[in-house]
Write the structure tokens for this entry.
Amino acid sequence: MRLLLVSATVFEIAPFLKEINASVEDKIISTHNYQSHQIDVLLTGVGTTHTAFYLGKYLSTKYDVAINAGICGNFTNKLAIGDVVCIDEDCFADLGAEDDETFLSLEELKLPGTYSLKNENSFSHVSFTNLPNVKGVTVNTTHGNTQSIEKFIQRTNADVESMEGAAFLFACNQYKVKCVQLRSISNYVEKRDRSKWNIALAIDNLNKVLIDFIHQ
């Protein structure tokens, strides 16, 4: 299998890299062999611009599957910190215009471009079977204000937020690459209080899924 593993930062996938004995050495993309697999690790940096650029540059290579792995924030009480989820539906949540108190998406503005999207080439594997499928949103500014969070939930009905996911799904859809967006919840989306976050647990659980996948 030829796998592209995409992450915004190295620390989000560090346990997986240790498992396959891979040193990325501050490279944007690096190639590693593990058992019978070739694993290309792409570290894009945070945000949609970096993610879109580097996927546009490297995703033209033929891959059997692309995986986006990272942490995320949670809007819903249906999920807990440390839960790992699959995001099959995402959107560029702040791509649009304000009309006084109303947000108008690109679709509502009838402008060319993409606002919401679904994974058109979803990759299935036994390691992901029991993971919840959720609705994600991709933002440029993560939420930390109670009033704006309430308005945002009403508008999007999202489960989780990230800063790269929609760009990943869009690129994979364009190249028709089988893919999965895996996210592990590090915090509830609420008034910002890092003392309530558990990034270590989120990373540990995310990488357990990745390691289980590559072993199988």
